[in-house]
Amino acid sequence: MKDTFDYIFVGLGNPGPKYQKTRHNIGWLALYEFVLRNNKDFNPSDGLQAYQAKVKIGDKNILCLLPTTYMNNSGESVRAALKKYKVPTKNIIVLVDEYNFELGKIHLKIGGSAGGHNGLKSLLYHLDTDQFYKLRLGISKNFGPGELVDYVLSEFTEEEWNGELTNSILKAVKALHNIAEHGALKSMSDINSDKL
After folding, report:
1. How far apart are CA 28 and CA 47, in angstroms?
2. What positions carry a catalytic annotation?
3. 161-192 residue pLDDT tens
4. Quick one: DSSP state of residue 100?
5. What superfamily would CATH give domain 7-192?
6. DSSP character for 150?
């Protein structure tokens, strides 16, 4: 019998050791931590171009995906998962880096544009809707004109790992638990007002 899922959680990032600790991969890092804390592990998926893990929170079954398509083609993997498991797009939570927020801030929203983010552009194109949730994780805006690409592909500093980055990842883990237990819409105000 085929698995059924209530939610799909997607961590955006680039695969491989070269990108593992970069700012662009904060969504990947946070989802990895969520899975780890639920005593599960990621394995190669069957036909989804992703690593996947299956997590149960209460009575909710969650498919956790780390697309291996590289950031710019993330939508291909998510579309394949939607087609396979028939999960409504409003039950997709995408964890994504956001340079307009300081490191440590997280924010949940549904809909809206890609804001120049290539991973989100790919999702909007392949899903043909903006009605999915984005859990945006701040990476700060410490770059000048023309330096965005180099900045997002730079690694977090040791100081950040020992401070706000770890704090942000733990906030994201709590947020995902809250979404699984109470739904994204009900969780939004607590997440966005930093009450978790």
Report:
1. 19
2. 24
3. 999 999 999 999 999 999 999 999 999 999 99
4. T
5. Peptidyl-tRNA hydrolase (3.40.50.1470)
6. H
